[in-house]
Structure formats: structure tokens, C-alpha cells
Amino acid sequence: MSGKGRRPLALVTGGAGLIGSHLSDLLLSEGYGVRILDNLEPRTHRNGRPPWVSENAEFLHADIRDRDAVREALEGVDFVFHEAAYGGYMPEMAKYVHVNSFGTAQMLETIRDENLPVRKVVVASSQAVYREGAARCPVHGLVHPKMRPAGQLSRGDFSVRCPVCGEVAASVPTAEDAPVGGETVYAITKMDQERLVLSWGRQTGIPTVALRYSCTYGPRQSIFNPYTGIIAIFCTRLLSGNPPVIYEDGEQSRDLCYVGDIARANLLAATTDALDGLPVNIGSGTPTTVRTVATMLSDALGIDIELLVRSEFRPGEMRHLTPDLSCATAAGYAPQVGLEAGIERYLDWIKTQGDIRDYFAEAEALLRNRRIVHEAR
Ligand SMILES: NC(=O)c1ccc[n+]([C@@H]2O[C@H](COP(=O)([O-])OP(=O)(O)OC[C@H]3O[C@@H](n4cnc5c(N)ncnc54)[C@H](O)[C@@H]3O)[C@@H](O)[C@H]2O)c1
Ligand SMILES: [Zn+2]
Known about the structure:
Layout: E1 9-13, H1 18-29, E2 33-38, E3 58-61, H2 67-73, E4 79-82, H3 94-113, E5 120-126, E6 135-137, E7 141-143, H4 150-154, E8 170-171, H5 185-204, E9 208-213, E10 215-217, H6 230-239, E11 245-246, E12 253-258, H7 259-271, E13 279-282, E14 287-289, H8 290-301, E15 308-309, E16 312-313, H9 326-330, H10 339-350, H11 360-369, E17 374-375
Parallel strand pairs: 1-2, 1-4, 2-3, 4-5, 5-9, 9-13, 10-12, 11-15
Antiparallel strand pairs: 6-7, 6-8, 12-14, 16-17
The protein binds nicotinamide-adenine-dinucleotide (NAD) and zinc ion.
């Protein structure tokens, strides 16, 4: 940081979580003052405040929906990194809207109405905002398929098809100008957060960036939350002696990004003006099938359990999504930790976490009951 004046102060909402805590550590190491606002959501933090919340950060145990607490948290802040959110495939609908959409709107309103001298807001968006990954049709070239119809999925046909001719289309990287329209409640509220922040930035003139993260993993990812984080869910299943449950046929692919790379992307977004006003894909740039992830984990753990593939599916879920990272890389982003190395770091960490329980079985039954998970015929 430059030597003049006081050190910049960053507010990291959700700073006790996976991404927020790694980002807080990075900011501290770069000379920022860090204040964390986190309500220690019980689904994620079953044992209260986790030991990795740095003693060098100020910690406010508060809810993003609490206007007074947010006002207090914003005092003297230069940079806001808004990571707090309700995430994953949880069954609640209203809570997503309340935490993610309302919480974000109220925070932005507070900064504006109180004329707070915030220099930039970086918001955690998600690749979930896309409706389906971009694809290439043998006849029509680059296409943006619609979400796969539930009728097709329930026949056990999981393919992505060209929206013009209906031919099976191959996955290609998805750029930021692809149509959005993710249909899970989570996706809808991540889109709300992104649009609220970017449009507020245009109105107020305060620089903003929305980072569309891909699937993020790494040490500190909750081992209690069975609704989010494929690597964490598969690992807790395996370590508790249960097979990972694979939706669809396991050939769907995801971009898995190590949390340290996501943290560095946030720092970059705060320090360059090249990304201001934009939604920006952040990830590893390398697709991996869900089946491969499960196999990599069971191999690395030395646990030989057959995967549970039951042709169940979650309507609204994408088949393939690999982010096109050109926008971020042009601004200096470069992912550094590959999947194998990242998994090794995660496993080293999870082995220090004591007894691992499986919370997934119960959650899965609930998701079926709430019609979030369906069975293909
Ligand atoms: N992990 C991923 O794969 C991924 C992918 C795309 C986007 N994101 C987004 O990144 C952000 C961080 O995700 P993460 O993976 O670190 O999740 P996480 O659950 O580990 O962390 C989120 C943190 O927010 C806190 N929080 C939740 N509700 C809150 C509330 N009402 N008030 C205050 N704090 C609250 C939680 O206690 C938790 O510490 C989220 O906005 C998420 O939607 C994550
Ligand atoms: Zn076609």
C-alpha cells in the first residue's frame, strides 16, 4: 500500500465464511485494516465463531439485515467486499430474498443516504446467474441454450441442445455477455445482488464490481452444511463411510476454483479500475465432471466406495459451465492453484477437523420432500 495517510479499511461481510475469511487474511497481509460483519449462520458454523477468524480483524457478530449494525460496520470504511449470503440448494425461499436481496439493498441505501465515503463495493455474484453454459452446435455455431426442460430431464435425457435445431451441442466457455436467467432461488437472488450493486454504482458514481465466482472450495469450507460445496459434501460423505450421491449421470461439468484464487480476484477488483462497473467471471477456467471430482476425492482419501448414481436431478441446474476468463485475465487475474493441489490442501485441513459427520442424508430427504430433487424415470 502507499505510505501516505492511514491504512485503508475494508469491510468484509460474511468474513467468517470460506471466501470471506481467506479474503480477510489476504487483505490483512496486504496492509489493510479489516472489519468483519458475520452473523455466524448456524447452518454453516455449527460450533459458533470459527478459530480461523483472525484476531487482527475487528469482528462484528451481526446480521446483514440489521440496519443499525450495518451502519456501524460501515463507519470509516474504504472498501466493501460483500460476501455474506444465504447460499446453495437450501429449501427456504423467503430467507434467500431477505438475506441476499434485501440485505444488499439496505446496505447500499445506507451508504448512499449517509453519504459514506466508500471508495468501492465488490460484490460476490455467482456463475449460477447464467441459465446454461454456452455451447457449440455443429450447424449453428455458438449458441446460448435455454435451461433444459424438466420433461426432458425426467426422461433421463440430460443433454444440452441447440435452441435453433435441437441437435446436441457441446459445452464451450461462457462469457459475461451470455444471457442470464438462472432459475434457482439462490440464482435469482445472486442476480438481484449483482444488479442492485452495479446499478447503484452507476447512479451514485461509486465504483462497483460484481465477481461471478465459479464453484469455490478449500480449507474452511463448512463441513456442516450439506446444501453447498460439492467437494465438502463428497468429502464428508466419504469420511463418514457413505458414497457420494451423484445427480444426473455424473457427466455434468463444473469449474472448481481454489478459494485463494477467488480471494486474489477480490483484491485485484479493488485495486484496478479496469473492472469497474462490470460483472466479471472468476474461476479456474478448467471444467471437471462431477464424477471425476468424486473419484479424485475417493482416490486421494484412499476410500473405495461405489458412487451412488440414481439419475436424480435438480430442475434449474445447469449441465455445464466453464467461465470464459478473458475479462479478468486482461485485468491481471491468473488462477494459481490447480484442482489436484487444491484438493490436497483441503484434505490436509479436513483431517484436522475431528470427527466428520454426514449431514447430507437428512438434507437430501428434505430436498426430495420439497420437490427440489426429482427422480428421472
Ligand atoms: N462457495 C461457492 O462455491 C460460491 C460460488 C459462487 C458465489 N459464492 C458467493 O460467495 C459468497 C461467500 O460464499 P462462501 O462460499 O464463503 O460461503 P460461506 O457460507 O462459507 O460464507 C458466508 C458467510 O456469510 C455469513 N452470513 C450468512 N448469512 C448472513 C447474514 N444474514 N448476515 C451476516 N452474515 C451472514 C455466514 O455466517 C458465513 O460466514 C456468498 O455471497 C456466495 O453466494 C460462493
Ligand atoms: Zn443448431
